Amino acid sequence: MADEKFSNFLTDIIDADLAEGKVDVVHTRFPPEPNGYLHIGSAKAIFINYTIAKHYGGLFNLRFDDTNPAREGDEYVQSILQDLKWLGAEPNGGIFYGSDYFERCYEYAEQLIKEGKAYVDDLTREQMQEYRGNDAG
To answer: Per-residue pLDDT for 117 more than 90?
Structure first.
């Protein structure tokens, strides 16, 4: 497929960014939370991101969003790794875990709060549901 010419709104944006020099490498990623098995929507996201990176000779990352250990497990990490292999989507940009840089994200959050660019939301679950609706639960 890397030799085929295809065009869609994503490739149009990437082509323009490359032509304007905004980027010089296409780097995509798939960020699953390892709390269950992948589904057809995941396969679609993997296909799009991997294929675009491959088409442009770029990189494709797998970045596990593993910051909720109460709901996640190695069984799901291994399953996701097997599924990517089965789909032929090699994460040539690397395999990363959100928990590896959680401390740095926390430091950035503190910095933004100190600068007045963010705040700590102290709403209860019930208040959040009242403000946002039932899908905030």
So the answer is: yes
